[in-house]
Amino acid sequence: MKFLLNLLLCGLILTVFKPAVAASSRTATPAQQAAMKAELARLITQFGDGIAETYSGNPSVIKYGQLFDDNKNDAVVLFNLEGFGGSNHQAEFIAFFQEQAPADIAGKHSRPYRLVAVTKLGQRGWRAFDFASASIRQHAVTLKGVETGAGDALCCPSVEITRTFHIDEYGHIVETKAGADKRRADKQ
After folding, report:
1. Which of 42, 73, 79, 108 gives the lowest tally of CB atoms within 10 Å of its CB?
2. Regarding predicted confidence, which is higher, 3 or 178?
3. What keywords would UniProt list here (predicted)?
């Protein structure tokens, strides 16, 4: 009897926790991937100055998962640009996209994804994130990175950080800092 109860409990635990794992590791169809690559190209064009390019040392990442309360396959795009105006300035960005149902209205067709919000994540002299560390859990994106500490050169932040980003009820990107790696209030 005790064995059966343990087996039932293990099954219940696996059932409860499996959706959270699946939501953080969703994949996209080829059509969704193509649509998001087009959205990434559009963002790079819009945020660039015609000279800046993406930095190959931290390639752009598109992750899929549930970011909103609609149980759809939403997407987050992480990208960077460097060389603005021919300089060595670089900046990193995060963009949240919501999957939407196809619609045909008055001869117009909706795109598979709608941009909800985008913001700068980091830049030279402030902080840098490892895009490969991105994970989606509980409607939020978590990233690991480094931030400029006292005595660090502009090129070389050394303070390890973890940040979580989500969309609030107004469509704004909200950043959460955890525990010991909270930034001092006087740092930008």
Report:
1. 108
2. 178
3. Signal
State pLDDT tens for residues 61-82: 999 999 999 889 999 999 999 9
**Residue 170 domain-assigned?**
yes
Evaluate whether residue 188 is within a structural domain.
no
Number of domains in the chain: 1
pLDDT tens sequence across 119-134? 999 999 999 999 999 9
* 104 within some domain: yes
Provide the percentage of residues in the chain whose pLDDT is more than 70: 81
Structural domain containing residue 138: 2-181
